[in-house]
Write a structure and sequence with these properties.
The protein is elongated and about 45 Å long. The protein is mainly α. It has one domain. It has five helices and no strands.
Length: 112
């Protein structure tokens, strides 16, 4: 599991509607960002890639997905300094694959 739903339930306490909204918003927003990243990687648009990856920092922080948070924090600098080189593309693929897995898991989760 890439995130701990039990921990999120604990953090949200009785406010399951807010948790459902957070998870739903993540699924929608992350899917849009993934599409933008894919397109920007194809066209070499570093600014869009960095902007969308930066959005993920807040998203993964809210879901306590610490496994990729540090990678995201360093990627902006790496892309700014080195462009969309092979190493950065590998990290981008790792992040987008992980986010895609989270979206898939969220679709199969029961909050209650």
């Amino acid at each position: 599991m890439l995130y701990d739903l039990a921990e999120l339930r604990y953090l949200f306490g009785e406010d399951l509607d807010s948790l459902k909204e957070l998870l739903n918003n993540f699924g929608v927003d992350a899917a849009i960002s993934l599409e933008k990243i894919d397109e920007a990687c194809l066209t070499g648009n570093e600014v869009v890639v960095r902007n969308e990856l930066h959005k993920f920092i807040g998203m993964v922080t809210n879901l306590h997905i610490d496994s990729i948070k540090d990678i995201l924090k360093n990627m902006d600098i790496e892309i700014r300094e080195n462009g969309l080189n092979a190493a950065n593309m590998s990290n981008i693929n790792l992040v987008t694959t992980t986010i895609s897995k989270v979206i898939g898991q969220l679709k199969n989760e029961s909050i209650v």
